[in-house]
Amino acid sequence: MAVSSRSMYVVVMLLLVSLAVGFVYLRRVELLAVALLSSLMMGVVSPLIAARRLYFLAAESSHMALLAASLAVILTNITPVKYEFFWVLLVGLAITYSVGLAIHRGVDPDIATSIATGATISGSVIAMYIALTRFRTSYSLWSLILGDPLLTTRQDIYVLTLLTAIALAVSLSTYKVMIYVGIDRDSAVLTFGSTHIYEILFFTVLGLTSLALIKIVGYALEHVLMLMPALTSMNLVEGGRRLMVSSVCLSIASNLLGFSLAMKLGVAPAGSVGLIALSIYLASIVAKGLRRYG
Fold first, then answer.
1. Residue 138 phi, psi (nearest 5)
2. 105 DSSP assignment
């Protein structure tokens, strides 16, 4: 426990350093807000994914988000509803719920996710081709691949704030149940009764997070940044609460340091955040090895 406490101390110190660096280099309020809000979403959802052990599905969520965003362009142009994010949420959550329903009905999660991956990747290619050749969009579809937080508008920040609040509320209220479900579903049912509502909330927050962050961190790195905080924390701390706190702290640190590095060097923010997160993860592996054999 003492080792875990020391690790938490290091994590908190890293958070404080990243906050100081972020306030120095991220002078735009909008950019700082995007960094903090997106890292909060990733930080609280990552432990849920780890608790359910649905890493493959989390990786697939970026494919779902890309398909939803591509179809949203088409639907915005051919239907009376001209708000793209409405279609992104509607299509994205429908796909997420479909996969979740298949898993709930007994389909192996890896099989269900593999089928969804094939369908969404193929669908994304077709939808993006149609969107690029036939319609206009309010943003570049390439930003969905690479991620570009600099394109985030005030309206996007308002929506991101709302979705972050939902993600926080759902994650904190369902985390304990998700741990039980991930370890032994039958025991979870005996302890909490029906877990249907908790699973619906889990898939909802997973879908919302992937959809909200697709334009900020991009399709290429979204699933990596959603998985890394919890995986890193598992190398450093023990206990559900500490893992959640550590995940949030590391996610904020990765985002603020990554965004600051991007502003300093003029590189893609999503890429620099990914490198920072990977560096912290590798350091946690070293720390875990030293603790085990040292």
1. -75, -5
2. T
CA distance 291 to 294: 5
How far is residue 212's CA from residue 233's CA, in Å, rounded to a whole number? Answer: 23
What secondary structure, in 3-state letters, does 31-100 show?
HHHHHHHHHHHHHHHHHHHHHHCCHHHHHHHHHHHHHHHHHHHHHHHHCCCCCHHHHHHHHHHHHHHHHH
With vertex at residue 248, the alpha carbon angle to CA 57 and CA 287, rounded to the nearest 5 degrees, is 90
Q: Which of 2, 183, 222, 209 has its CA nearest to residue 89?
A: 209
| Positive/negative CA dihedral, 119, 122, 128, 133 | negative
pLDDT tens profile 67-102 = 998 898 889 889 998 888 888 889 999 999 999 899
User: Dihedral of CA 251/255/261/264: which sign?
Assistant: negative
Angstrom distance (rounded) from CA 192 to CA 35:
36
* pLDDT tens, residue by residue, 151-179: 777 888 888 899 899 999 999 988 988 88
Range in 34-38, 86-90, 104-108, 148-152 the model is least confident about: 148-152
For tokens 């309010």, name the residue.
Answer: 138
Q: How many CB atoms lie within 10 A of CB 165?
A: 13
DSSP 153-165: -HHHHHHHHHHHH
The dotted CATH code for 2-293 is 1.10.3470.10
HSE, CB side, 13 Å, CA atoms: give it for residue 54: 29
> Does residue 136 carry a pLDDT above 80?
no
